[in-house]
Amino acid sequence: MGTLVLLILGGLALVVGLGCILGAARSGRPRTPSVVLTVAGAVVALLGAAALVRPATEPFLWAGVTWVAVAAFFAGVAYRITAWVTTPVPLSIPTTPAPTTTGGVILRVLGEVLLHRSLIRDSKYVWALSMLFHWSLVFILLRHLRYFVYPVWGWIVAIEPLGVYGGYVMPICLLLLLMRRLYHPKQIYISLLSDYVALFLLLAITCSGILMKDYVRVDLIKVKNFAYCLTTLTIPALDNLPSLMFTVHFALVLILLVYFPMSKLMHFGAATFSPSRAAKYDIKNRRYVNPWDPGPNVYESTGNTGGVGGRPLGGGNG
Fold it and tell me: Which 3 state secondary structure label does DSSP give 266?
């Protein structure tokens, strides 16, 4: 049944990705996230179909897909961060009022990442939903560490109730954010199909997690054995594969991992490396020169009184 889940979810991801590509092509927006989702869906669907033909290959399928998805996630995140770090920013363009010291910049970035300070000025309603969603996600992820470590660390046991409550708060926040996109006139105007993919993926993941906790119980011993095999790069045994609901939950997480680096979800990195947030306001004390500009800077006089920067003021040759 697990391979059938992969086949269905891969097919859905393929269809949604193709729809996102068409929507992005009409609007002229970047199509990279849509292409990534389409390719990932096609690969997962093909692997699921292959495993249906040979059921004994299902453990190899899950292990291989998991390792590839995790590698794609880290490689994509590293690629995006490298692109941000290596992009030249010759002019200091922080959003004012801005700090003038390195310590002030660090505090400002931490305020954006942990408290979303700039969002509260725009909409307190969206700020409250965003804070509840992000902090619920943090505690949910920390709680899930209990499946990967043995014995379970004491601090994980201590925060486990927060992770449980966060599992119920997170889908409520996602539904309210989705309703805002569906009913707010400005949000409808600027939204594409790709803008809803992350919301639906996160909703499906949280809802399947709630179902496993309260209604469709899974064998936690099998889950821990499955997680241990994947983290130690070993193939799990066929009889140790968890239940159908777990495979749905886990497959959705893998699709999200592949989609994450090239999507808007990478805003957590953008907040850290954005030149409008992570830059000092020292434009009055430091002279900026374009690193790609050959020759003397246009604002730098070379002693030629007939022009600026050694160039004549006129555009003619005579």
Answer: helix
Which residue, 175, 174, 162, 164, is CA-closest to 133? 174
Cβ contact 252:44 at 8 Å: no
Q: Which structure tokens are listed for 212? A: 């496993």
Cα separation values, 229 from 2, 52, 200, 241, Å? 17, 22, 29, 11
3-class secondary-structure state, position 242:
coil
Residue 220 and residue 243: Cα distance in Å, rounded?
10
Residue matched to tokens 């992005």: 24
Q: Read off the amino acid at residue 234.
A: T
pLDDT reported for residue 2: 56
pLDDT in tens, 55-78: 666 777 788 888 888 988 998 888
Q: Is 173 within a domain?
A: yes
Task: Say how far apart CA 15 and CA 206 lie, in whole Å.
Answer: 22
Q: 282 or 2, which is more confident?
A: 282
Ramachandran quadrant class, 28 (left: phi over 0; alpha: psi -120 to 50; beta: rest): left
H helix or E strand, kind and range, residue 307:
strand 307-308
- For residue 302, pLDDT over 50 is answered with no
Residue 175: its H or E element: helix 154-183
- The tens digit of pLDDT for each residue in 181-210 reads 888 777 777 776 667 888 888 999 999 898
The count of other CB atoms within 10 Å of the CB of residue 95 is 13
What pLDDT is stored for residue 4 in this prediction? 65
Q: Phi then psi for 30, rounded to 5 degrees?
A: -60, 140
Q: Which amino acid type is present at position 210? A: I
- For residue 64, give both structure tokens: 């291989």
Residue 127 inside a domain? The answer is yes
Do the beta carbons of residue 239 and residue 160 sit within 8 Å? no
If one counts the domains in the chain, the total is 1
CATH number of the CATH domain containing 61: 1.20.950.20
Q: What are phi and psi of 308, to 5 degrees?
A: -115, 130
Determine the structural domain holding residue 161 and report its residue range.
2-85+110-281
What is the rounded distance in angstroms from the CA atom of residue 177 to the CA atom of residue 272?
Answer: 23
